[in-house]
Amino acid sequence: MSASRLAGLALSGALLGTLDACGARTGLGVPDVYDVPDVDDVNIDASDATDVADVAACREGRFVLTARAADLIFVIDRSTSMNQSLGSLSRWRALRNALAASLPRFEASTNVGALFYPEASSVSREASCQVVNIPQLDLAPSTGNAGRVLDVFSTTAPNGSTPTAAALLRAYNWVVRNPSRARARFLVLATDGAPACNAALNPATCACVTGGGGGGGGRCSDALRCLDDTRSIETVRQIASNPLTAVPVYVVGLAGDNSPAYTATLRAMAVAGGRPNRAGGAPSFYDAREPETLGAALSAIQNEIARCTFVTPSRPTVTDGLRLSLNGRDVAYDPTRVNGWDWTDRAFGELTLFGAACPSDASPDTQLVATVACE
Amino acid sequence: MRALALAVLAFAAFGCDTTACRPGTQRGCLDGADGAAQQPGYQACSASGEWSACYAVGACVGGASTRQRYARCDSDAQCGDPQCAVCGRYSGVTNPAGAGICHSYCQQDADCATGEGSGLTPRCILGQCGLFCDARSRCPFDSQCLAWANSAIAAAYPAFQGLCQ
Lengths: 375, 165
What we know:
The complex is a heterodimer of chains A (375) and B (165).
Chain A: H1 3-21, E1 61-65, E2 70-77, E3 85-86, E4 89-90, H2 91-102, E5 110-117, H3 125-128, E6 139-142, H4 146-155, H5 164-177, E7 184-191, H6 229-241, E8 249-254, H7 260-272, E9 286-288, H8 291-308, E10 309-311, E11 322-326, E12 329-331, E13 340-345, E14 350-354, E15 368-372
Parallel strand pairs in A: 2-5, 2-7, 7-8, 8-9
Antiparallel strand pairs in A: 1-15, 3-4, 5-6, 10-14, 11-12, 11-15, 13-14
Helix pairs in contact in A: 2-4, 2-8, 5-6, 6-7
Chain B: H1 2-14, E1 26-32, E2 38-44, E3 55-56, E4 72-73, E5 86-88, E6 100-103, E7 121-125, E8 128-133, E9 145-147, H2 151-156, E10 162-164
Antiparallel strand pairs in B: 1-2, 2-3, 4-6, 5-6, 7-8, 8-10, 9-10
């Protein structure tokens, strides 16, 4: 092949690449929000996504509460290590199967969205660390989204680094830029690897996430391979306790590196996220070491979201002006959120049942009643 | 010939100013809003080297929306163009009346500044604007300094009593 022919091929290839890169990426899914006038009907139909949980000011009386509709946004690790095994399957496949089993059961009350990280189109390992902080998800929460989430597992493959903090910020950015009065929002982080991709860390002194695992020792080849524990934990804490818009974060750890540093990072993120798994005693992350435990973890999280978050149609104006009873038994107010109820978004009249106070089944006979006192 | 090919490749990588970019970089942009308003914003470069859409930050410049920021609201429509401000309720304050406030988005504290009210500290927290206040503050328009919702938040922001809302 002549030199001119080679140059021609290079020219056409480069221009095609440029044209491809020039494709616009736009579009924000903005949910519809409607204001409804105050009504006497105290039952809020949480399963109807167009309803607005826009509660009235204080009205004394007894009110039957129904669960608040929710958006559940999965932040899913797509890094190279997701190709490794979890039982007889790859972690990637195991997560897909667990979602396939659990998502349809909660579709009536929970809209599902997803952000996969790193981006599938990353041009290099370094680029895969870049999850830019724009309000975009791969899939914005909507009804009937389960199939679309599962499709991503078929159409893309794990590859690249683990920019967990950046991915969480991006998902949170979407929530902030797409406010909804109708729905509670939650993030679920599903990851198998220690967070990385912090260029500000010192590779000579940091714990390395490669060659022996999170904090396993050894010198990192570059900062992007350092364990990004402090920033990731702080990011989760800021998201979950932001006084402007707080979004709880669940953490699911697929059995990956079990080094102490890795486990400690996941546990700290789970506690900072405000929705730790308390099944094992000390609050921690949802630890999925087998496909079965992964499925159980996802179901437990979705159950908690679908059945434990409520809206009162009347906000009390006095501090202890709300009493709750579940099927006739008092539910204690518990600001420590271990076993009882607490306000989770009082401006919206949202409260949540924590721990054993949350009903474990969806029996139609389950009735949560609020007795409200006003000044 | 080789020089030509290199030049072509360089153009392919960086010549398309509106799209091709270095992953992770950001730049400012201007987005049109309602009426005469122009909204400053930012774009970010994705891992695949494409510029994102322009996302608004701060108050609109010009137009009718500017004066609505940090006023109380019941709906987004009262806050002007949704790129300029939206009607939100902060989750970290005691707000028994369920009052809303027009707020904007941000990248830094300066994006949240306002000439209205006094004794206030504008803060940008994870991309969202709020006005932190204390007993000496006068909140803008009809908004009030609402107290923190719980002791944990109060401990995290000991210099302030709450947020204007």
